[in-house]
Amino acid sequence: MAASLRRPSFTACSSPTDTDDEGVRGTCEDASICKRFAVSIGYWQDPYIQHLVRLSKERKAPEINRGYFARVHGVSQLTKAFLRKTECNCQILNLGAGMDTTFWMLKDEDLLPRKYFEIDFPMIYITFVLKNPHPLKLQSLPDKFLLKLPSLLAFTDGHMLDSTRYAIIGADLRDIADLEEKLKKCNMSTQLPTLLIAECVLVYMTPEQSANLLKWAANSFEAAMFINYEQVNMGDRFGQIMIENLRRRQCDLAGVETCKSLESQRERLLSSGWESASAIDMMELYSRLPRAEVIRIESLEFLDEMELLEQLMQHYCLCWATKGGSELGLKEITY
Amino acid sequence: MAMAEGERTECAEPPRDEPPADGALKRAEELKTQANDYFKAKDYENAIKFYSQAIELNPSNAIYYGNRSLAYLRTECYGYALADATRAIEMDKKYIKGYYRRAASNMALGKFRAALRDYETVVKVKPHDKDAKMKYQECNKIVKQKAFERAIAGDEHKRSVVDSLDIESMTIEDEYSGPKLEDGRVTVTFMQELMQWYKDQKKLHRKCAYQVASETHKPPSTSSPPPGLVSFPPPCVSPVPLLPSASCAPRLCLLHGSSWSTTEKITVCGDTHGQFYDLLNIFELNGLPSETNPYIFNGDFVDRGSFSVEVILTLFGFKLLYPDHFHLLRGNHETDNMNQIYGFEGEVKAKYTAQMYELFSEVFEWLPLAQCINGKVLIMHGGLFSEDGVTLDDIRKIERSRQPPDSGPMCDLLWSDPQPQNGRSVSKRGVSCQFGPDVTKAFLEENKLDYIIRSHEVKAEGYEVAHGGRCVTVFSAPNYCDQMGNKAAYIHLRGSDLRPQFHQFTAVPHPDVKPMAYASTLLQLGMM
Questions:
Q1: Do the domain assignments include residue A4?
Q2: How many domains does chain A have?
């Protein structure tokens, strides 16, 4: 499907492409709700997520919570490794960030990069502000939250909220030219080592579109790292069912071809101009978690069927690729 | 309480020998006041930040920890809240708010008994404080609520829900057009109407649901308690359940009234897990239950799938209709712990009431743990035992009308799994054990059995034969959780030849209700 160059405006909420993407946008809320639920049970700490998404009334299955724990842990480990290698003299671009709280969490740990960018569909951010119009609620957010009511108008106009350390950009990741323009307007540097994170993002665009994005990322920065979390091993029955289930929710895994195996995930990174690439499935990652952590989280909820967790985890992977930054030792970063 | 990975620097206070300087104390108080202001303005993370700074200057002030604990509660950091409250109490055993904070943290973490202890302490210290008393009573109510008490695995004799129900006085409104019992009895018509009613996603009137569930609970009219080990065929000679004697014919014998009828086969199904439409499909493929088409369902009827109510009432209905030809064995999901998390309790509460759930819980406790076919094939949900030397007689003697304990034969019957290697291992599930082919062989030899049939584990093909044919797994929930894509299976056993015949089947469509749609979160209770 051809990437549309249409810019979604505040009023036009129903164009064909808008509806197509609606299913994908829905996954943003799903992921945030699942994360918040896991936090509420005690899987990890995140005092910010409660401001961004509601608490699910339905209980999420224990294997889902453990899966999210591993995901959040894995991405966080790699991110912090990058920050340490670059001594925070870097940028982070969170692609398809949705209602992510990483910026605030890093701030608490004094691990902020020079600048942190979040990019997602404009509708995601507009919807958030629309859902949280009550002044009292916004006032209860810490000062640092930028999405206050007056800013909505600024956002809908240029689809950007910019500040020195933090920017929120509404853009379609399939429209590289537009993305690049907006990033430039927000003073993104091409000289700083840059980390790009994509959590369940690339799979929603065609292999061609994601390759373009990956190529652009590899070419835009002197030194860079890309973290990709998404499906893998999708050729089997479990994968088929996942694809069908998502399709029924109007969510097309357009890029599932590249999710065939760990090998294909590594390949797609290497063939997009990245110099080194690694990939592990989440069951492997889970088995490498520190014992104390595993004991802690496994005692939070009793899992009745390990097979469900194993199947789930074997169908998701954490991949990372680096380019340049040899003085920094970026290549050495591993989970 | 273990902390989350990487304690935040604010929490790591080094032990100090010298008391802090006077200036530091003053500054700490100032910081605390600032923190309080942030707290009042609902800026909790700044509140936490400033409390932490105060603590750094003066690490022995219980109030700082108590206040920070409350700020953590507000930001849902229950682990940190608990740790701070505990520290506050350690520092000052008389600091009442510390107990409040710890109780609130424990409530949020679902540890109601621990919370109750702290509320008890507060009430003791402040016997005239209305708020303390109220919190204690509320917490006490939760603890005493049977669902939660059972979750903590108590052994006390509970007052029977069945006994306290007054079903007679329940009325059915004229507008209700659904199935009803005829003179309080389950009939073939009732069951047919029920299944169609359920297929159309309608609800059985609660009076009928109570009738079915409580009738199932009633022990059979024998002098002895219902057998934990059911024999099949049922006893031919005396009313007291015994293993059939050697003189019983090799064909499957069934007692129906006072006349005998021999039958061809019996069908054994594994886990069904609330997948009602797949259950209907089993009856479609294999025929409805009857005296000539007996069934055994090997546990895990509920949870995960969101049509658990429909499944369980259908199974109970058939049990009442064909008490000697339709058998239900208990699975690990016929327990309170599992029902709380995996959706059955939530589903019953959503479709009926908490009391209805209590009733189901009680009926589950009555379910037998194992069934023996022709003295040759033993069926149980989980598997064999953590120790050697368990006999059928031991199984029969298990006091099973309770929530399963953490270990022991009752726990093993519901929870264990086979493993390929000899011996026993710690279970990957964290409860019971895994047992090898040698364990199976020894058990079968000692008890003069041919093989066991169990369920409990999802299998891609719906069944699996292990331990050289001595340990068979059958699983009857296809495409488990709408995710796994597995086939399901059921087993035919014929009286003439007790070797298992496997029949596989795949999932059928069902209305758009996700698995675990009714699983509710505990956290909506008992917050400060």
A1: no
A2: 1
Q: Note whether A237 contacts B44, CB cutoff 8 Å.
A: no
Residues of chain A with Cβ-Cβ distance to B338 below 8 Å are 302, 304
Q: Does A144 touch chain B (CB under 8 A)?
A: no
Which of A142, A242, A293 faces B43 most closely, judged by CB atoms? A142
Please state whether beta strands B417-418 and B433-435 pair in parallel, antiparallel, or not at all (unpaired).
parallel
Q: For residue A108, say whether it is annotated as part of any ligand binding site.
A: no
ipTM: 0.77
If we measure between CA atoms, which residue out of B154, B149, B139 comes closest to residue B105? Answer: B139
CA B213 – CA B228 distance, rounded (Å): 19
The encoded tokens of residue B422 equal 């000899």
Could you tell me the CATH number of the domain that includes residue A63? 3.40.50.150
- List CB contacts (< 8 A) between A292 and chain B: 2
* Domain hosting residue A301, numbered range: 9-332
Per-residue pLDDT tens for A21-50?
Answer: 888 888 888 899 999 999 999 999 998 888
Sheet arrangement for strand B433-435: B417-418, B433-435, B424-426
Class of domain B188-218+225-233+260-525: alpha beta
Would you state the pLDDT for residue B155?
Answer: 45
CA distance B464 to B487: 11
Report the 10 Å Cβ neighbour count for A63. Answer: 22
β-sheet bridge partners, residue B451: B377
Is A2 part of any domain? no
Q: Which of residues 242-281 of A touch B (CB under 8 A)?
A: 242, 245
* Residue of chain B nearest A290, judged by CA positions: B5
CATH level 2 (architecture), domain B22-150: Alpha Horseshoe (1.25)
Examine residue A1 and state whether it is found in any structural domain, yes or no.
Answer: no
- How far B378 CA sits from the closest chain A CA (Å)? 23
Residue A52 lies in a domain: yes
Yes or no: say if B462 and B475 are a contact pair by the CB < 8 Å rule. yes
- Taking one residue from A and the other from B, the number of pairs with CB-CB distance under 8 angstroms is 112
Strands (E), A232-305: 276-281
- Looking at the DSSP assignment, which residues form a beta bridge with residue A194? A91, A224
Answer left, alpha or beta for residue B374, where phi above 0 means left and psi between -120 and 50 means alpha. left
CA angle B150–B151–B156, rounded 5-degree value: 25
A135 close to B (CB below 8 A): no
Q: What is the DSSP track for B134-200?
A: HHHHHHHHHHHSHHHHHHTT--SPPPPHHHH---TT----TT--S---BTTB--HHHHHHHHHHHHT
Sign, CA dihedral A12-A254-A98-A239, equals positive
Segment B272-279 mean pLDDT: 98
The model's pLDDT over A66-124, given as tens digits with 9 standing for 90+, comes to: 999 999 999 999 999 999 999 999 999 999 998 899 998 998 899 999 999 999 998 88
> Which pLDDT band, with edges at 50, 70 and 90, does B261 fall under?
very low
Residue B464: strand pairing partners = B473
Fill in the DSSP letter of residue B221: S
Chain A contact set for B429 (CB, 8 A) = 303-304, 306
- Please give the pLDDT value at position B219: 56
Sign of CA dihedral B383, B385, B389, B391: negative
Q: A316-333, pLDDT tens digit by residue? A: 999 999 999 888 888 888
Min Cα–Cα distance to chain B from A72, Å: 12
Per the CB < 8 A criterion, the answer to whether B81 and B499 are in contact is: no
Domain boundaries, chain B: 22-150, 188-218+225-233+260-525
DSSP, res B262:
E
Structure tokens at B197: 């009613």
Angle between helix B78-91 and B96-108 (nearest 10): 160
So which residues of B are the catalytic ones?
Answer: 333
State the Cα angle at B281 between B275 and B283, rounded to 5°.
110
